[in-house]
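Complex record, two chains
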Amino acid sequence: MARILECVPNFSEGRDKEKVEQIVEEVRKVKGVTLLDYSSDETHNRSVVTFVGEPEAVIEAAFNAAKKASEVIDMTTHQGGHPRMGAMDVCPLIPIKEVTMEEAIELSKKLGKRIGDELGISVYLYEKSASKPERENLAVVRKGQYEGMEEKLKSEGWEPDFGPIELNKKSGVSAVGARMPLVAFNVNLSTDNVEIAKAIAKKIRAKGGGFAYCKAMGLLLEDKNLAQVSMNLVDYTHTSVYHAFEFIKREALRYGVNVVNSEVIGLVPMDALLDAAKWYLQIDEFDHSQVLETRLHD
Amino acid sequence: MARILECVPNFSEGRDKEKVEQIVEEVRKVKGVTLLDYSSDETHNRSVVTFVGEPEAVIEAAFNAAKKASEVIDMTTHQGGHPRMGAMDVCPLIPIKEVTMEEAIELSKKLGKRIGDELGISVYLYEKSASKPERENLAVVRKGQYEGMEEKLKSEGWEPDFGPIELNKKSGVSAVGARMPLVAFNVNLSTDNVEIAKAIAKKIRAKGGGFAYCKAMGLLLEDKNLAQVSMNLVDYTHTSVYHAFEFIKREALRYGVNVVNSEVIGLVPMDALLDAAKWYLQIDEFDHSQVLETRLHD
């Protein structure tokens, strides 16, 4: 498998397992797609599905899942703790291997157009696919939630990128867009003083003048009694795991504190860790095709 | 592809491209096997073929290649600069993924037995598969080369592990065995004083009291005018790339010298570099199945 696109759609159903299974089955049955994971949250009444594969196959699976969601989910009766605006609430496309961001953006537009044209659902393009800067941030796009969409779609500057200007009452609105893979990386400090973690988090994140593609917060791990700097690196090709780590290590020393250990949560692209190995080992020239495992499926 | 075995047989033919192609074709046509690379050296009159795949398929491909080599190569007329004792001179089997060393040893015995029984070629098991300690080292096994094998096979303690005690004159003798993947790792120093690289090499290698699974030598890179510590890490799971690197960095400082950069030559198992990333980033708990790419083909 040479080219890999990842897709992580969120659906507004987390209680009726049978409906969730029907949606997931649409992903499973597309050739060239591998279902990596899916999980449902009853409180949020929401499910997240993760799959990867050849780009065209991934788009096909995403569309089929959106179609099934539009059949089995009724937004007029949906309740749950998580902000939402549609049956397939949001569908990010993430380039993993031999897919450029530009290609992922094109694919997101193709998917959005199909959802608009064939399912009659209004679609906003978001993140890297956004047609205007104010549509980049999902929270802004989704503001007003399902209940506010009828009015939002008709308000100035918020016409949908695809699909009808009239709200599809049963299915709501979907956000579709391309984004970088996210690396969830936490660093634990040799202190129970959460204020130190919070101070470091403020300094490392973009908002505080730190790294441009880093979101961070400080918290206390109650079970271990350790303060933690918890991060989302939203573009590891620009803000790397090792730069974030070294910044925290140095900043912690300022308070007389050391790094105890760190953790990567969930899936991580191989390159995010290979880049760290190359940097620490000072390997100047290295082609990732030298990694034996990458040669097996070309 | 869940389980991966690598095989890197060396054949005593490096001048007649057509014969080499015939041997390589035997590897190519086995289902479940991926040919990664092959190259021929005219001076050595020798070719190296690298392939990987599902263990049973790899053994099948190795046997078929050995059979073809026994047909197209005639050792009675072979000349070349590299030590050799047979048509398929040596065939290492290397566990890469979800294959234990014990399994690789069993597979090497199965392969050796087939070569002995079906092709009538004498086989010595070497490296981890060796039936006696003195057969572990290939150089010792091959001592006397093709020309000395008729006598060696009949001498005390050197009866073959498989196949006839009488030399197969056309095909010679083959060494078959399991070994760990080898990582070729070089570190360049901020000096043109090759004596410093030689002194560090002596200290880092097993022979000098250094790391148990490290072979090393010091040399001068003429084009860059930099001294280099050139290493073979013969078991990166016990002597890691990062420990070797940190040892050299520290030892170089003793001479007032820094590390300029380093290089990995050829293919490297993903884990050798992931282990480095984990160590430097102090990631305590990490399951390699968190690497997105590893999830695609299970």
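Note: The longest helix of chain A spans residues 101-119.
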